[in-house]
Automatic annotation (TrEMBL):
It comes from Marvinbryantia formatexigens DSM 14469. Residues 262-454 form the Carbohydrate kinase FGGY C-terminal domain. One of its GO terms (molecular function) is kinase activity. The keyword Transferase applies. This is Carbohydrate kinase, FGGY family protein. One of its GO terms (biological process) is carbohydrate metabolic process. Residues 5-247 form the Carbohydrate kinase FGGY N-terminal domain. The keyword Lipid biosynthesis does not apply. Belongs to the FGGY kinase family. SUPFAM superfamilies: Actin-like ATPase domain. It comes from the Bacteria. Keywords: Kinase, Transferase. Pfam families: FGGY_C, FGGY_N.
Length: 505
C-alpha cells in the first residue's frame, strides 16, 4: 500500500501526544491523552509503562487514523519520545517489573548519587564526564532499585531508558539514542559513547540497551504481536527515538549551530546547539538529536507544575466555573496578575516545590512565598510565581552565556507559551527576545519529522528549518529589566540564607 504518513508519539509528564503528518512534515492530525504522575511518597515520581504509555499509544493511533480516515499500512515510519530517564526494568518478554522511575523530579536516589560521587571521586567524575553525578542521571536510579528492591533487580533481563521501552515493545530490540544516553552516568564512557568500566558499580552491561548511532536510525520494524497490540501495521519502520526535550527542539527548528530552545512544560528545559564538544561542569552535555551536532542542556524542576498547583489549590472557584462551561481557569487566573507591577510589590516566590535541578542541583530545596502582607492579592501571588520561575530561567541563561552559548534570542516552546504575560515577564527578567513558532504541538511533531529524516522523505535539517513559521516575537522591556536586577539578587539570597533550614525540613 502507498505510504502517506509519518507518525510521532510523545509521553510527557502529564499527558501523551500524537501527531500525524504527510511525508514532508505537514501536520494532518493531532491527539492527546492525559495521565498522572504516581507519587507514593515525597520525592517519588513514576509512570505505569503499560497503563500510562502503551494504552495512551493505542488510543492516540486510533484517534489520528480516524481523523484522516487513514489506514495503518499507509504509515511510513514511527518516531517516539518520552520524558527523560523513565528507567524501566523489564523481564525477558519486555513486561515491566515495576513502574518507570522518572527524571530529576524523582529524588529518591540522593544517597546513591552521593555514594557514586564518593567512590569514583569528585575530580575523577568531572574529568571523565564533565559533571558530578546527580539525581537526574540513570545510574543512581538503577542503584536505588538494586539496593532497595533486590528481588526486582534479580528478575531484570533488560533496563530501558526514555523511549526505549516503547520501541522495544514495537520491535523486540533494545536501543537507546546518544542524546538520551548522555544521562546514563556513570555507566557511559563519554569519550567513546559506549558502555564503560563503571558499569560494574551499577549493573551488568549485558542488560543495558544497545547505543544507536543516530536518534533517527531505523532500529527495526513493528512485529506481528506489536501490530495486534497497537493497531500499527506489521513491518512499519521504527526509529530509535529520543527524549521529549530533544524532539521538541527539532519540532521548533532548533537544528543548527547556535540555536537555543526554552521549553515551558511541567518543568523547564533548555537546549543550546553547538558544533564543538567541550567540557563545562555546570551544564549537562550530550550528542544532539541531529547527527554530528552537540548540545548543552539544563532543566528546572517545578515550572508549569507550579502554575497548575496554584490553579488547583488557590483558584478552585475558577476551576469550577470552567467545568460549568465558563472561561479557562488559567486564562482567568493569569488575568488577575496582568496589572501587578514588576517585582509584585515586594513578593518573591522560590519555585522549588519539588527541589531544584539547575542551577542549584539541590533535591532538598523547598518552595517559598516570601514578603506577604495584607495588601497582597491572589494576583500578586500568581505574578510573583511567574517571576520566580523567570529568575530561575535567568540563572540558567547565565550558565549558557558562561559556556560560550549566548542566548539573546531563544525559541520558546511548550504549553507555557500560551501565556503572553508569562513570556513577557521572562523576557523582561532575562533581557532576551523569545520567538514562538506557529506550530506548538511539541515533541510528537519532532518525532514525526525525525521519522521522515530516517526514511528520507524529509531531506535534512534545513528542510525542517523551512517548515517553521513564527507566531509571536516577545522583546524585553528594558525598564523592567533594570527594575528586576535587585529582585534577582534577593531571589538568590533567599535560597542561600535559608537552604540549611530547607535541608532540615
Amino acid at each position: 500500500m502507498l505510504k502517506k504518513y509519518l507518525l510521532g508519539f510523545d509521553v510527557g509528564t502529564s499527558e501523551s501526544k500524537g501527531t500525524l503528518t504527510n511525508l514532508t512534515g505537514k501536520v494532518l492530525a493531532t491527539a492527546a491523552v492525559k495521565h498522572g504522575v504516581i507519587s507514593m511518597q515525597p520525592g517519588f515520581a513514576e509512570h505505569d509503562p503499560m497503563k500510562d504509555w502503551m494504552e495512551d499509544f493505542r488510543k492516540v493511533i486510533c484517534s489520528l487514523l480516524g481523523q484522516v480516515r487513514g489506514n495503518a499500512e499507509e504509515i511510513a515510519a514511527v518516531g517516539i519520545s518520552t520524558i527523560m530517564a523513565a528507567v524501566t526494568f523489564v523481564d525477558e518478554n519486555c513486561e515491566p517489573l515495576r513502574n518507570a522511575i522518572l527524571y530529576g523530579i524523582d529524588t529518591r536516589c540522593v544517597k546513591q548519587t552521593e555514594e557514586i560521587n564518593r567512590i569514583i571521586g569528585r575530580e575523577r567524575m568531572e574529568e571523565e564526564f564533565g559533571t558530578l553525578c546527580t539525581v537526574e542521571h540513570f545510574g543512581p536510579k538503577i542503584l536505588w532499585v538494586k539496593e532497595n528492591e533486590p528481588e526486582i533487580f534479580a528478575r531484570t533481563k533488560h533496563i530501558t531508558f526514555a523511549s526505549g521501552f516503547l520501541t522495544a515493545r514495537l520491535t523486540g530490540k533494545y536501543f537507546v539514542d546518544k542524546y538520551s544516553v548522555s544521562s546514563a552516568l556513570p555507566m557511559l564512557d563519554a569519550k567513546t559513547m559506549q558502555w564503560g568500566r563503571f558499569c560494574d558499580l551499577i549493573c551488568p552491561r549485558e542488560i543495558l540497551p544497545q547505543i544507536a548511532e543516530s536518534t533517527y536510525s531505523v532500529i527495526g520494524t513493528v512485529t506481528r504481536q506489536a501490530a495486534e497490540e497497537t493497531g500499527l501495521a506489521e513491518g512499519t519502520a521504527v526509529i530509535c527515538g529520543t527524549t521529549d526535550a530533544g524532539a521538541e527542539a527539532v519540532s521548533a527548528g532548533v537544528v543548527q549551530q547556535g540555536d537555543t530552545m526554552l521549553m515551558y512544560g511541567s518543568t523547564a528545559f533548555f537546549i543550546g546547539v553547538t558544533e564543538k564538544k567541550t567540557d563545562h561542569t555546570k551544564l549537562w552535555h550530550c550528542d544532539y538529536t541531529i547527527d554530528w551536532l552537540h548540545c548543552y542542556t539544563a532543566g528546572m524542576a517545578t515550572t508549569g507544575s507550579l502554575t497548575r498547583w496554584l490553579r488547583d489549590e488557590m483558584a478552585l472557584d475558577l476551576v469550577k466555573k470552567e467545568e460549568a462551561g465558563g472561561e479557562n481557569a488559567y486564562t482567568a487566573l493569569f488575568r488577575e496578575a496582568e496589572e501587578i507591577p514588576a517585582g509584585s510589590e515586594g513578593l518573591i516566590v522560590l519555585p522549588y516545590f519539588q527541589g531544584e535541578r539547575m542551577p542549584l542541583q539541590d533535591p532538598k530545596a523547598k518552595g517559598m512565598i516570601f514578603g506577604l502582607n495584607l495588601r497582597h492579592t491572589r494576583g500578586h501571588v500568581i505574578h510573583a510565581a511567574l517571576e520566580g520561575i523567570g529568575y530561575g530561567i535567568a540563572q540558567n541563561m547565565q550558565l549558557f552565556a558562561d559556556a560560550g552559548i549566548p542566548a539573546d534570542c531563544v525559541t520558546a516552546v511548550g504549553g507555557g507559551t500560551k501565556s503572553l504575560l508569562w513570556l513577557q515577564i521572562v523576557s523582561d527578567i532575562c533581557g532576551i527576545t523569545q520567538q514562538v513558532p506557529e506550530i506548538t504541538i511539541g515533541a510528537s511533531y519532532g518525532d514525526a519529522l525525525m521519522a521522515g529524516l530516517a526514511v528520507e522523505t524529509i531531506e535534512g535539517p534545513e528542510a525542517i528549518k523551512r517548515l517553521v513559521q513564527i507566531r509571536h516575537v516577545i522583546k524585553p522591556d528594558m525598564e523592567n529589566f533594570r527594575k528586576y536586577q535587585k529582585y534577582k539578587e534577593m531571589f538568590a539570597q533567599l535560597y542561600e540564607r535559608n537552604k540549611d533550614i530547607m535541608h532540615k525540613l
